[in-house]
Write a structure and sequence with these properties.
Blueprint: H1 2-14, H2 17-23, H3 32-47, E1 63-71, E2 75-79, E3 87-88, E4 101-106, E5 111-116, E6 123-132, E7 139-145, E8 150-151, E9 160-161, E10 166-169, E11 185-190, E12 199-204, E13 216-222, H4 229-269, H5 292-310
Antiparallel strand pairs: 1-6, 2-5, 3-6, 4-5, 4-11, 7-13, 8-12, 9-12, 10-13, 11-12
Helix pairs in contact: 1-3
Length: 311
Amino acid sequence: MKLLAAVGVAFADAASPELIRHHKTVIAPDGAAALVQQATAQAQNQATPTERPKGYENMPLGCSLVTPGSSEISRLDYKMPNTGLDMCDPSTAQDASGVRFSVEIVQGQNLMTIKRLDQDAGWSFPASFVCCNSNEARINMLSVGPDMAHYPKDDAVGGVALHQGWTACSPEPLNDQKDYYGEKFIVKTESQGPDQPVKVRVDRVGNTGKNWEQNMRLACFSMDAKQTRADLMTEIKRKDLTAAVLAKRTTRLEAENDAKVQAAEEAANNPPPEKKEEVEITTTIPPPPLTLGATATMLSAVAAVMVSAVV
């Protein structure tokens, strides 16, 4: 009887849950059945998903529950069951017990990397995460910007807090990538615990020391998001086009203003020569005074004229 019990316990440790359920009725003496049932429960607990994380009682459009399971070490690389899933909420149902995780997703790779943050150890429970497809789910837009090798810029900072309620971000930028062919990114989301904002960090794949020039915008999930990726891409194109037109107009006006300023400075530095005023001086010369002989002659002429008029 003791041999049967020992065989039953050994079998329970090695067998799958299905085999245990199939054979456990064979061993029934005294405490052996209880041991088998306990081993069965433990095996089933390792194989079945946990409850859904808080807030995901109703699974959103484009999202599903992913259960990578347990791990003996603090890091676990897990191949996604759905190739379209590209953003994951690092919070799990276990966060309430003090266990915290980060989740990294590399652009274009069907892989998620899970790391335990609260301690350098593995976990025995089947951790579950809500992951979404940014092409199908309702999303928000996170403005990351250009000229940085990673986001946030400070190396000492593990991430920047997302808006309240935002839980996951995709490494696939929303802005047009045709001018930035070959750039790939990693998005890391980090749980801060229950009711705390999720942190996000963005890095370039394989070249984190080089800045990116694109004005990056990322898709981030929240339960109250209303727009699709297509909606946001259209909005971004319109805003970028408007910004480009305004930039050209500003450049033209600045160039015109610069030309005016330059002309004014040149005029101030090179004044025209002074004009000399020409003054016309007119001199009036009085007639010479009459002599006595000239006066007599004039009087004779006048008298002759008068006599002539009388006659």
